[in-house]
């Protein structure tokens, strides 16, 4: 396995190679503790055996679903109430459950209660990620096996480094995701997380005035979204292209002339229609703010 003999792999984990062979040939079950030890020996990271939050009843499932929707709509009081209910019923001895709760608590502290600086938020994200993914060897291992939540957390860490202007660190974390999604299976199976990452990348490139790269990323993902028949992020990508059009002009110290003004309004109108069809209230809010700011120029 990955260039290691069964004798070396079993050493310190099993009494003999027969026990390991039984796991490899589905004759016995792999214990979670042994799985962690094997991953460490193989120089792999990730909580491969527990990718999803462990829900034990449909009421808990419904509450988690409601929490996700409330968080998406920035209804933080509802998120706080639901998280209190969920936290009391989840087994927090399970790492992915603890990570789920820790991430939601961190988001509330940052976005709603506004108790954290960007630097404190970044360190909090790393602590939450470290619950399932050992940070201390993340950049030294040869292979990674990321869970859905880990991809989301790494993407947010990448964006937070960007916000802080720490571009070298930003690119290190970005490299983890680029390598992960080189695998076509990862891109197909984890499409939502791939699109979330690329949307973040397009935004980051725009924020750093790399509008050509941002447009390329956004355009590619619109095309890939159509091929995948998954339109979750299409409104976001089209908004990024529209916003970049205006910002590139204004970054050069100019104001939009009448023709450019009309073109920008046309772009926003197209994005608005998409956002309404795809039920993206956050994009509609951004467009309304853009139009208001245009009228104030």
Q: According to CATH, what is the topology of the largest domain?
A: Serine Threonine Protein Phosphatase 5, Tetratricopeptide repeat
Strand line-up across the major sheet: 1-2
Count of separate structural domains: 3
Mean pLDDT across the residues is 87
Question: What is the top-level CATH class of the largest domain?
Answer: Mainly Alpha
CATH architecture of the largest domain: Alpha Horseshoe
Low-confidence stretches: 45-50
State the total count of DSSP E strands: 2
Largest sheet: 2 strands, parallel
**Helix-strand topology string:** HHHEHHHHEHHHHHHHH
Query: Please, how many helices?
Result: 15
What's the alpha carbon Rg, rounded to whole Å? 22 Å
Q: How large is the share of residues in beta strands?
A: under 5%
What does this protein look like?
By secondary structure, the protein is mainly α. It folds into three domains: 42 residues; 130 residues, Serine Threonine Protein Phosphatase 5, Tetratricopeptide repeat; 84 residues. It is built from 15 helices and two strands. Strands 1-2 form a two-stranded parallel ribbon. Helix 13 runs antiparallel to helix 14. The radius of gyration is 22 Å and the shape is globular. The termini are far apart. About 2% of the residues have low confidence.
Characteristics of this structure?
297 residues, mainly alpha, Serine Threonine Protein Phosphatase 5, Tetratricopeptide repeat, 3 domains, two-stranded parallel sheet, 2 strands, 69% helix, 1% strand
